[in-house]
């Protein structure tokens, strides 16, 4: 099973008493992979998939769920090694702070064809709200409110900055922070009553199947350019664990794959570790591409080891 907290281990070596042989050796630091993830369904399952592959290859795995700001700080402090959910340009403000320090870097894009932007139900869009520029003239219908995610979330910051800077004349609006589940519950209530609501939506996510929704145009570009999700590693990790770093360089998924993960985990309420195990077993051809040229911790060919693991 995964360790879900960061653990520090103290080894006491009693050389003077000749007891060194009796003291068990701790697994080398490079044989432990420490993942951070925000509790969005897509990156949650994605992280479980990557961690399960690491575990099959003989690595110890530690997984820490935290807000993005905490994750980047933990990468800087070397308390974490990897983050698979750097959604850019939405997270640019947080990421850039640590990139400039030289303590983190993007390894590669692991997911394209993504959108993170303010959305409305289709009936609101058809009524004339097609752009963020259309919100203010309909402020009363929206209650001058946009629903977002947890405090500190990058999308929340985009809207809070827009309110502060009066982009789209939003100076009198408020952002309603919530969780994914809380925000979607508010959307569901509004849709059930055909009320107007604006919220920060994204895809891939099953909300796009739950609701007929539309993403608003952004002529002022507050949401940035086209989005992609990157794998981030702390600086130095590529030298400390060259074998697993190869996995990070080769790990990429598609929106349809992540849609399946999200549906299984959040919509069907299945354990993300179980979802990961089943998906790996049924998609060895894709996994083989991710681990090409890698070895297990004990020096065997990674592809053969994973086939053995999923066959047991």
TrEMBL record:
Domain ABC-type glycine betaine transport system substrate-binding: 31-282
Any Pfam family hit: OpuAC
Gene Ontology cellular-component annotations: ATP-binding cassette (ABC) transporter complex; periplasmic space
Family annotation (CDD domains): PBP2_ChoX
Keyword Cell wall biogenesis/degradation in record: no
A GO molecular function held by the record: choline binding
UniProtKB keywords: Signal
GO biological process: choline transport
Heme is among the record's keywords: no
Signal peptide: 1-28
Protein name: Glycine betaine/proline transport system substrate-binding protein
Species annotation: Halanaerobium saccharolyticum
Biological classification of the source: Bacteria, Bacillati, Bacillota, Clostridia, Halanaerobiales
